[in-house]
Prior knowledge:
The protein is built from 12 helices and 7 strands. It has 305 residues and is of the alpha/beta class. The chain is globular. It has helices spanning 35-47, 67-81, 95-108, 125-136, 148-151, 157-165, 181-188, 202-207, 222-233, 237-251, 259-269, 286-301, and strands at 18-22, 52-54, 113-115, 142-146, 171-174, 193-196, 212-215. The longest helix is centred in the C-terminal third of the chain and has 16 residues, at 286-301.
Amino acid sequence: MTDNTASAAGTGNRPWHGVLVATALPLRDDLSVDHDAYADHCAWLVANGCDGVVPNGSLGEYQVLTPDERAKVVETAVAAIGGSRVMPGVAAYGSAEARRWAEQARDAGCASVMLLPPNAYRADERSVLAHYAEVAKAGLPIVAYNNPIDTKVDLVPELLAKLHGEGYIHGVKEFSGDVRRAYRIAELAPELDLLIGADDVLLELAVAGAKGWVAGYPNALPAASVELYRAAVRGDLDTALPLYRQLHPLLRWDSQVEFVQAIKLSMDIVGRHGGLVRPPRVPLRADQEAAVRAATEKAVAAGLG
Length: 305
């Protein structure tokens, strides 16, 4: 166990810096949450060089958890590795509910939260600003999560600059896939921290100045993923580029509809507890499973597992 006041390694007072793993959630055969396995997973990730975890993101299947399950996932992560290393997702349809999840994270000892824009409908700019203003009242630093593919609300650089200028957000997990935005964000809001949001643009955003990575595939391959990230952000392309090429057949699954199933399968292959997913997700097709299995086994054979 780690003391809740301990700072995540190398992050200072910005606990969203570094490699923060959007954790997959281990389920038992009856689809109940295996909290003991989850605690072990969080500790294993930190032991393998990751700076922290992001529970209750889409990779953690938060949409199909009960409120009690969702709260306990956060508490389990904090007990396992310390609150400064835990940045829960607090997305909800309503701003009041999202604020309550931010308050729950605060009370559990977390040091920051990650928040999607309103996603029950195609929110306009005023609604987005009001949403982040409400959740900011919980008092924890917020990292915005821009995922226009799934939410249909795009936190474009100009809107991010407004959110940051109002003091509502401190960083952004960028999942649009448009790496050109990194430079526009840096021009409009130079103090807003850019976090890599999609595994398959890691190198491009790292060299563009990203301060962190909200990561999927370190769930299965943490040590190699951390080595890749550290090399990329320090500009060591001689190390980073070959690793990136080796890992990219897996990293690109993070941007696919079946990313939860793919990452959990890779976890199973390397000896971790990946396992089942809750409906409405269904198992991978045979061809998808074969592709993930082949790419994972090739990475392990190359010493990346």
